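Protocol step 4 of 6: record predicted structures for both targets in the notebook before any analysis. Target 1:
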Amino acid sequence: MSDSEVQEPVETTPLLSQPVSRKPYSIFTKAQKHWIIMAAAIASTFSPLSANIYFPALNSIAQDLKVSPSQMNLTITTYMICQGLAPTFTGSLADQAGRRPAYIICFVVYIVGNIALALQHSFSTLLILRAIQSCGSSGTVALASAVAADIITSAERGTYMGLTSLGNILAPSLGPIVGGLLTQYLGWEAIFWFLAIIASVFFVLLLLFFPETCRVIVGDGSIPPSGWNRPLCDCVKISRVSTIPSRDRHITIPNPLPSLKLLFRRPVGILLLGNGVIFGSFYAVMAGIPAQFVKLYHLNDLQVGLCYIPAGLGSLLSATTNGILVDWNYRRICTRAGLALEQEHKHQVLSFPIEKARLQIGLPMIVLAGGAIAVYGSFLAYGFPFWSVLFTIFISCFCITGAYNIMNVLIVELYYTTPATAMAANNLVRCFLGAGTTAAVNPLINIIGTQWTYCAVSGALVAVTSLLLLVYFRGWDWRRAQAGLPVTCQ
């Protein structure tokens, strides 16, 4: 895949008041879109769930394998590194061969990895298998956003992208609770059997019913897929007569370079950095909860796991309400710009300041998240009541989730022709920054204290906000200049 394949398509019409085509962007009905997006959201849950369900079992596994806690932390680091790298290959494959082949490969690797993890009793084997498990599950996060880009237009993308991120946001909150229960009553091996079983059930349903959505393969959905792009339930039906032939395509070896090149391209490189810092701030709060809450409030492991519920509730509420707000603002900006607003058609991104439509909601969320995290650190430092600390977690996660989802929407908007490649780059940055934050937060608390640690996290969010202001004011002109079009006088 060449670099040009990840650039924005140059618009072919000068009329800002007209959408790209009068033909609907996708032939899928609204009900079909809902269940396709929900399936993609469930699939994306397995990566963060596998990472966080593992935490309560660390001490038990360390005792059984006779290794130190520091060695066990290596399995977390290995997982997150692979979680960042693997989607760069998965995204490239998905944009060429289609979403279904990428999903099939991911789940086969993931299920086999989990079964092997449940059966092994060696630290070196654990380290290798955690990497394999991560490679299998991590691609599904980028694929969820790609599926949304395939079938959803800009006018409704805020709501649907919020739904695709639900699993990715809720899993870090719910995973430790499930992991703690399984470890306490059934042993740590039960965690991997549990993941293998639920993944296998979902995989069978995916093989049977999940349609191919990649526009390179099926266009707006009217081109019939063939081979492994075709759901098994279609294969057992009587073949339908179609006048639209399947597309011939040449698939090359998955190449991570297009994803890596996006890191150095304006404005998306700044967006990727900003989203990584937002994601890192989330893990700064999540990773610090166990040690701090045991120390300050004398909780046991199960009670600590329950403390993640406010984070999950805040994320859930944010994913649903902020999507509605983002879509409302998009409609408002379209109306002000004199653009015809039709949810079934797509506007050219070069004809529209999409950065302003998204960041007008996203930037306030980032600032509010920074303030809430600073308050959270102060409450911990001065021993505020338990309920008030949980409330600040709820507010922090509400704002972080809102900002994170909006940034995801904007990244997909800018690269809607190769969304899996773009989201793979996003996954790379966020996972590396998330891994670094997770490793650093507790040592930093021991060195400079809780209040200053979370003030530093808040400061990082404020700093990245200033960079995103450049995207807000200059992003549209950067994109038009790269496409050889005259810049605007915004």
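Target 2:
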Amino acid sequence: MLKCCDPSVSSDSGNNFKNLSKLEPFTDYTCIGQIKENNVIIKNTTAIHVRVDCELKIENKEPTSTNTSIELSWTTTSLNCEKVLPELEKLSYDCRCHPDNWKHDQKSGQLTVNKQPRGGTCEVSGLTPFIDYTCSVQPTYNDQLVSQPTVVTKKTGVGVPDDVGTLKPSFPEHNVIKVTCHAVKHFFGPKTIHIANLTYGGVIQRSQNNSKKCEFEFKDLSYSTDYVVEVVAFNGHFSSKKVRSQTVNTLYNDKAVIIRLSIFFIICVVMVPVFYKIKIYMKKHRNSQ
């Protein structure tokens, strides 16, 4: 008769011996043979180490993704435990995903799930949009890692860009409006475009794009006019929330004022001598009379 002892169970309990039919895979046992005569143990054989590794093989299927999650699916087979594989209730899987180029400001999702021994699916959520992730499915038995994980890569879907910062208008000239803001850091998509619309009375008058900076300049505008500037970030698929400036007013027509003053000055320069000559002529005329 062969009896095996589970080292993880205290020998004081008297329950640390198991029959061969009750042995579990991925577990270390110490086994001894007992020679009996008339149901009396007359000799124990030398203890031997026994461990059954099921050599699990996990085959990943093509993963699917949203912009914040990746769903993994797989099947599990075993060369030497195929018959008992469906009965392994302690067999589970650990699903993890992390960015290929790890940065501290990016999220790495991980989720441990229990699935059917033959395989299953798991969803890793809380991920960052439009990021390449490396995901793994790690088999575990009785909360212990067993076999090697399988690895697959997947990119999350396109998300909505971050909003632009507060708009800061300025006036390089009286009929010019310049608007700046902090460039968007995360576009979560293939393109990085800042779009500015200059509106008057709720109607778009002009539009500008800038892929590098959040900086726009609208020239040759109407003088002393109320405008509003709207800026969004666009990644080729989605736009961020519009950020509107307060009403920005172009200044008065300083060039026209300068021209009027110049004309008035010229008139003054020309007419003063004329008036002076007229005055002298009239004085002489009175004296002659």
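Step 5 preliminary note on target 2. The two ends are 161 Å apart (CA to CA). Confidence is low (pLDDT under 50) at residues 104-108.
Proceed to step 6 after PI sign-off.
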